[in-house]
Amino acid sequence: MTGARLAADVGGTNTRLGLARDGVLLADTVQSYRNDGCSGFAEVMDRYLQGAAPEGVAEVAIAIAGPVTGSTARLTNRDWDFDAAALSQHLNGAQVHLLNDLAALGQACPHLGAECLDKVIAPAGDTGGDGQRLVAGIGTGFNLSPVLQAGGQVQCLNVEYGHVSLPLDVAEHLRSHVPEADAFATVENLFSGRGYAAVRAHFPEDDTGAQNFQAFYANLLALLARNLMLAFLPAQGVYFAGAVARSILASPARAVFAERFQQPFELDARITAPVHVILDDAAALKGCAALRLPA
């Protein structure tokens, strides 16, 4: 497999790996490993390469669920550190590139087919090719990856939007049912696994309570998405990822989200975007495969 690229998607619980050639992930090479019991990423990587590519690889692209600073990174929910130079030396000089997991999803977006996406709001026209997209990850935490495709190249910006103050319209709607709304000071306080659970606790445990909660949270999500639309103008599409986003947008409350999200803006009624949920568990690997590494 000389000349192949190793693509890796490292989360707090599992690491998924696969091989890629010419920007395309080889689906039959993808394997997943539990992180428990492993001392770090290098141990998981070596175990995979021993069977999948014992002769080594030329390149490595690693999507990491945590902050990436240049050539170093750290997992948010596990005590694992990453150093591109050390990994390159470990792999006999292979080129190693680290990127945030949402940036990897951003790299994948232009390459995801209809079978990889749940279409919540259909595009008004052709949204392929160059333009702006936005990936929003709502799971354990919250973050964004603004995506710009131009001239056949994809660029993903680094942001920390989860720590931005909660928008006023979202806070006001939250306060209508949650008296201690001031406790949700940032976007991530509300739009994350712990925020989801905290709001759910204010609704009865029965089926009616569950339905009312989903509709309420879908309204909150739509209000946030409208703010993101104005901030990033992702005319090529908004792509949601993460367990919280999937839970709400796969429920009957997706209709509530769609109705609120599509209300016209006073600023300009022409501001629109399709909305998708990423269903493909290998999407980050596909982004690592497609990534153009610096020369």
Structural class: alpha/beta
Instruction: Tell me how many strands there are.
Output: 15
Topology-level CATH name of the largest domain: Hexokinase, domain 1
Overall spatial form: globular
- What is the rounded distance between the termini? 21 Å
Average pLDDT confidence is 94
Q: Share of helix among residues?
A: 25-40%
| Rg, alpha carbons | 20 Å
Query: Could you name the ranges where pLDDT drops below 50 across 5 or more consecutive residues?
Result: none
* Strand residues, percent: 25-35%
- The domain count comes to 2
How would you characterize this protein structure?
By secondary structure, this protein is of the alpha/beta class. The protein folds into 2 domains: 5-106 and 282-290, ATPase, nucleotide binding domain (Nucleotidyltransferase, domain 5, 2-Layer Sandwich), CATH 3.30.420; 115-278, 3-Layer(aba) Sandwich (Hexokinase, domain 1). It has 10 helices and 15 strands. It has helices at residues 41-52, 84-90, 101-108, 168-175, 187-190, 193-200, 207-232, 243-249, 254-261, 283-290; strands at residues 5-10, 14-21, 24-25, 31-34, 59-64, 68-69, 72-74, 81-83, 95-100, 117-121, 131-138, 142-150, 153-156, 238-241, 275-278. Strands 1, 2, 3, 4, 5 and 9 form a 6-stranded mixed sheet that branches. A 6-stranded mixed sheet has the order 10-15-14-11-12-13, sandwiched between helices. Strands 6-7-8 form a 3-stranded antiparallel sheet. α7 (207-232) packs parallel to α9. The model has no long low-confidence stretch (mean pLDDT 94).
